[in-house]
Structure to design on (270 residues):
């Protein structure tokens, strides 16, 4: 019994030491390394928004990218070769979301799986009598267990069209921020007044989108109307890719996103 007690104390002490000292010390060591020029040129060609950022935000983004590349595991699927260019481009977009927030928002993200192209997922369901099989084609997905899956061809489409609404990397990493408070409910962690403002603004906007789906051009990709978690992910894409459009259509939603992300992308779209 005494041994179990001592063992438990040792585990708690080690976790405390790791979380508060070792991890911070190790991160500090990574940040002391100069940011490689070749990563900077990848960002310039692959992360269009990077070129427009004010110097202080660009510096913060670079620091987050340094930690992201040092800590997250990348895996190529279906024979895909995850080159340095691919890793920097994905890290660059993922970290755009948290460039004015703390890097620890991504502490739970452990691995990024990259397929060359949209990939098939097969699922089997049984009701006891009939087994049905479904096959779906996906551009990406995010799991609450710290995994993000991306189809590189879809990432490249987003990189080529930085002013179009879609960006699968921003979308899947927005889901990771949504998971931070333990539920994928379309509300990332907020506090006090921010929570009340978020709930009333987003509930109204979500209902508004659902009712405007019969319009020829709804103000947001209709996929955002499937559930609140998708609403937040699709809104995040629009916020960074088409800020002027979103701000004109939904000023309250735009402001709530500015408060959460702590940046105003319209100011650097110019
Ligand atoms: Zn989604």
């Amino acid at each position: 019994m005494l041994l179990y007690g001592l063992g438990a104390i040792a585990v708690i002490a080690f976790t405390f030491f790791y979380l508060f000292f070792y991890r911070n010390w190790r991160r500090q060591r990574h940040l002391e390394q100069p940011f490689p020029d070749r990563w900077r040129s990848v960002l310039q060609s692959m992360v269009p928004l990077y070129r427009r950022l004010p110097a202080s935000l660009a510096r913060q983004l670079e620091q987050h990218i340094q930690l992201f590349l040092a800590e997250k595991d990348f895996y190529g699927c279906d024979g895909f070769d995850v080159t340095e260019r691919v890793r920097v481009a994905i890290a660059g977009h993922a970290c755009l979301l948290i460039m004015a927030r703390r890097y620890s928002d991504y502490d739970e993200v452990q691995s990024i799986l990259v397929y060359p192209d949209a990939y098939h997922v097969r699922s089997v369901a049984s009701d006891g009598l009939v087994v049905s099989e479904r096959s779906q084609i996906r551009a990406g997905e995010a799991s609450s267990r710290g995994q993000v899956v991306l189809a590189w061809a879809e990432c490249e489409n987003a990189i080529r069209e930085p002013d179009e609404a879609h960006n699968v990397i921003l979308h899947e990493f927005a889901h990771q921020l949504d998971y931070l408070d333990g539920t994928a409910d379309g509300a990332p962690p907020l506090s006090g007044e921010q929570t009340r403002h978020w709930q009333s603004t987003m509930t109204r906007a979500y209902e508004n989108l659902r009712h405007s789906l019969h319009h020829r051009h709804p103000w947001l990709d209709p996929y955002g109307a499937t559930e609140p978690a998708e609403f937040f992910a699709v809104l995040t894409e629009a916020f960074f890719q088409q800020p002027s459009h979103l701000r004109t259509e939904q000023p309250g939603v735009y402001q709530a996103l500015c408060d959460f992300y702590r940046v105003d992308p319209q100011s650097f779209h110019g």
User: Anything to note?
Assistant: The chain has a mean pLDDT of 92. The chain has two domains: 10-160, 181-270.
